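Reopening this one. Same input as before:
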Amino acid sequence: MDFLSSLNISGSGLTAQKLRMDVISQNIANAEVTRTENGTPYRRKMVVLSSINGGGSFRDALDKATNVKTSGVQVRSVVEDQSALVPVYNPTHPDADEEGYVMLPNVNTAQEMIDMLGASRAYEANITAFNATKAMVLKALEIGR
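Same output, byte for byte:
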């Protein structure tokens, strides 16, 4: 594997983990939102990641022509968590039903913070790999002097 492929893999990981942290931040920010634009409580969002490994795309044709197989990670989609909303008794809330219950989002802030730590560590690992590759390339260039 050449160094450019290594940098591309680390770069794809950085991009994916940054989006993951953005979505987690959005979940935390909306943990108490009982009414969105469509009138329903906010639903937790999750990022679905997948590996980049082919499937008849331009990347495959380029890989075949150059005899280089690229890989990495990509964001497949951002999906809503369909788990149950959390009913809370608060009859004075404007969004309370006739029994006095308000449906709160299915966001657990403790779980979101754990997910944020995981995404942050993955981001740091990709930065470390990127910097290690960069250092190896610089050392290789120094040898050529």
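So the earlier flakiness isn't reproducible anymore. For the record, DSSP finds three helices and four strands in the chain.
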